[in-house]
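User: Sequence in, structure out. Go.
Assistant: Echoing your sequence, followed by the structure tokens.
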Amino acid sequence: MSASVALHSVRLLLLLVVWGVLDVGSSSSSSSTPAADTSTAQNPNQERATSNGIFSQGTSTSAPRSITQAPILPFKKYNLTMKDSPKDSVFKTVILQSPAELELLCSLVLQPSKDVEKIEVVWKKEHQIIKNDTIYKNESKNSWCSRHEVNVTTRDQLGNYTCVYKTKPEEVNSTFHLQVPEPHGKSERIISYVGDFVVLACLVGSETRQYNPSSWVWYTKNGSEQVAINTTLMPEKYVITQEHANITKLKIMGLSEEDTGVYSCEAMFPLGARKGEVALKVLTYMTPLKPFLAIAAEVVLFVAAIFAYEACTKKKEFQVEEVEKEFEQTETLKTEDSNGVENSATRQRKV
């Protein structure tokens, strides 16, 4: 009896021990798992970021900050060289269709007779001073150079950049003109006729250098204002086509004299937009005949004047002939009368 009781007690004790172990394991597991989940939820990229070396190691649970790098701009370099004479000031056009990092070099060549220790240079954006520079003599005694760097990312940074060398007795300057490409019409003036259709074309660049605008817009004039042409509202009147990025075409159908005017094509670039123009003249079919009709009228008037002159001349000649005939007849009669008198006198003497 006592043995069975002792065995039952041992079994009960083992069950309690096992139950306690299981309870402790489950509680520890449940308490550690949410913490790990919370850490992962707060900073899911912490391990990856740390392994890449972007962020420093730590126990902070804040989300990592994103790092954005500025785009790398293409680098371009332009140089202007001038002599120490205001007449030798030079001007250079720099065409940009997208943002770029520019280095503008302004060089001055002095005469060998001039001995200069230093020269002051001023850089201007339009008429505003943006930089002062002082150049000292180096191994090259006659050549001086000043540079200005600018990152052109907006339209406001386009325009004139001028370097002014304060030489004596007069200043010398040169200018870099920054602008976007300028479109132009294939034909400056096009002539067509009422009821016909016409195709106006605009392009930007040349055979050796082509630019690719992001988009094109056509404008027509309504009085003094320019109105964008909407092909969706007037599909029966206008059609805009674009085979290549640097060429746009506007087809105008059912021409009338009211379509005469100047049409503008605007090329859009990341740094701004510029316009080109094409002139259109719409004529009626009678218009080409007007000079011919005027010439024909002049010919008719001239021929009529000739006929009138000949008629007057013949009339005068006829009148003169009539007068001459009358005079001849009168003279004949007088002669006959005088002959009759002489004959009668002669007869009387003979008797």
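User: And one key feature?
Assistant: The first strand starts at residue 75 and ends at 83.
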